[in-house]
Write a structure and sequence with these properties.
Layout lengths: L1 H20 L11 E5 L5 E5 L5 E3 L5 H6 L6 E5 H5 L3 H4 L7 E3 L5 H6 L4 E4 L2 H9 L4 E3 L14 H9 L3 H25 L8 E5 L16 H8 L3 E2 L11 H7 L3 E4 L4 H10 L7 H4 L3 E3 L14 H12 L8 H13 L5 H8 L12
Helix pairs in contact: 7-8, 8-13, 14-15
Length: 357
Amino acid sequence: MKRFLSLFLALFLLMETALVFSGCSVRKTDGETVTVTDMLGETVEVKKNPKKVACVSRTTYDLLIAFGLGDCIDGAYYTLLENEWAGVFDKNASERYSYAYEESYETFLSRGVDLVFAPEKYIADGLREHGITALNVSLYGTPSFDGYVYFFADLVKQIWDSEEVAAKVDAWKNHMAETIAVIQTELAKHDDAARTVYYVRGDKNKGIGYTDTVGSFTEYAYRVLGMDPLNDRFATNKPSAEEICAQNPDVFVIGGVYQKTLENTLKTTEPYMHLPAVEAGQVFNIPIGLTMFEQLSVFSPVFLCDQANKLYPAYFHFDVKQMIIDYCREFFDAELTESEAEHMLNGLSREGRALDS
C-alpha cells in the first residue's frame, strides 16, 4: 500500500509539474481576475491567465508568442496569418482562427474567447457591450507613442502570472531600452540638422500617398533616430502627390508587403521620380517579419538599428543580420540562416521572393 501511495504521489507531482510548464498558465487561477487599464484609459476587469485570446490588434500577436504565450492565442488578424513569415515564427499559424478587423461579437462568443486585444476604441466598446472582455491596444498613442512603447509588455505581466513570461518581457524591454540609448547617445555627439522623412505604408497597395497619422510608433521611432517625420504636415494619412512633393522629403522609407511595388512606383513615376531624395538614392526599405518592423513588435530594436545604419552610414554599423538570427533564437526558438535573415531585411519572403508576388 505504501508503495502504491508513493507511486501515486510521484505521478501527481509529475502531472502538476507538467501543467506548470505547459500551456500558458503557470498556476491554477480559475475565477481570479485582475483590473487593468487599456491604451485609452478604460479600466477593465479581465480573467487572470486567460487561455484563449484573440489578437485582432496587429501589435500583439508576435509579442505574445515571443513572451511564451503562444498556446494562449486562439487567432489573429487575418493579414498577419497570410504573411509568409507567420509559419516561421508560429508553428501553429496555420491552425489559428483568422479574424477580421471588425469581427462580429457572435464569432468571439461561439469560440469561447477569454480576451480580445482590439485595435480601436469603438471595436473594444462594442465587444464589451455584448459581454466580451476586450482591451484596446492601438497602433497609435495620444498625443504621441512616447509613453506607450512598453505599455503592452507591462500589460502582459499584469494579466499573466508567470515568472517565465515576466523574464521574457523584461529581456525584450532591456533590448529596446539599450538600443534607444545607444542610438541617441551616438546622435548626440553630432550636430546634424534633422532631416525630414516620409513613410510609405505598404501593408496595402494604396500608392505613395498612404502613410501613418500622428501618434504612430513609426513616427516615434524616426524621432528617436533624429529625423523629422512629416506625419503632422498632412491633414489625413492619404496626402496627395502635390502635398508630398511640396514637402520635398529628404528621405523616403517604405514598409509592408507591397514595398517592392511601391519602391518601383516611387522611382519610375511622375512626379516622385524627379524629387531630390529619389534621385540621390535616399529611399530605404523597412524589413518585415511576422509583423511589419515599423509597427511595435519583438523586432523593434532591430528595426531601429537597421534604419540607423541606412540613415547614418558614417555613424552606425550594427550587425542587424546577426541580430535577427539571435532574436529568432531567443524569442521564437527558430533558427534562420544568414540568407534567410538577409531576405527578411530586404522585405522579402523566406525564399527571397517579393511578398506581394
